[in-house]
Amino acid sequence: MAQEATTIARPYAEAVFALANESSTLDQWSEMLEFIASLMQDSTIQRLVNEPGQVKSQISELIIDIGGGKLTQEEQNLVRLLAENGRLDIVSEIAQRYESMKDEERGVLDVDVTTAFPLDEAQQQSIATVLKNKLGRDIRITSSEDPALIGGVLIHAGDLVIDSSVQGQLNKLANELEH
Q1: Residue 25 belongs to domain with CATH number
Q2: Which of 103, 123, 155 is the last residue of a domain?
Q3: What is the span of the domain harbouring residue 87?
Q4: What are the two backbone dihedrals, phi and then psi, of residue 177, each rounded to the nearest 5 degrees?
Q5: Structurally, how many domains does the chain consist of?
Q6: Residues 98 and 111 grouped into a single domain
Q7: pLDDT, tens digit, for every residue of 105-143?
Q8: SS3 track for the chain
Q9: Judgement on whether residues 64 and 111 belong to the same structural domain of the protein
Q10: What does residue 151 show for φ and ψ, rounded to 5 degrees?
Q11: Last residue within a domain, chosen from 103, 137, 162
Q12: Which of 63, 87, 91, 105 fits a 20 to 30 Å CA distance from 122?
């Protein structure tokens, strides 16, 4: 189902991105999609949306009302379209895809850095600088710790994986010894 939701979300995200990019309102649409996605996490809203026989126009108007007048006419139209097509349940996937497109447009790449020990700000900045020079994009780092790595670093930057962890080197050595 997750892959299906991503496939269904893609054309919506692309349409919203094209509209937002054309009107220079990328950040405004990000906020709106985030708002609707967080609203859809509410159990009461989920129950209403998934209730059989629920009138779709009532659901969309409820969501628009909860927005308290913050939604533009175009944003309200999107909410109505998603409700009418029974797609409010994939707003978080639409938002994720939209954010990826926005980051790509702005030349930003999210990078996950995993180390055995916490990185300080200077170390994160150093990694970001090296990756920016290598990849030609601004880097946004998310770091985490995994003591199983023993030492070194494991970096995921899009499709690129850099594994210079001790655990990775031990696994590579074990593979070579088996063959």
Answers
A1: 1.10.520.20
A2: 103
A3: 2-103
A4: -70, -30
A5: 2
A6: no
A7: 999 999 999 999 999 999 999 999 999 999 999 999 999
A8: CHHHHHHHHHHHHHHHHHHHHHCCCHHHHHHHHHHHHHHCCCHHHHHHHHCCCCCHHHHHHHHHHHCCCCCCHHHHHHHHHHHHCCCHHHHHHHHHHHHHHHHHHHCEEEEEEEECCCCCHHHHHHHHHHHHHHHCCEEEEEEEECHHHCCCEEEEECCEEEECCHHHHHHHHHHHHHC
A9: no
A10: -170, 175
A11: 103
A12: 105
Residues 70 and 126 in one domain: no
Q: What is the pLDDT of residues 14-53, one digit of tens each?
A: 999 999 999 999 999 999 999 999 999 999 988 888 888 7
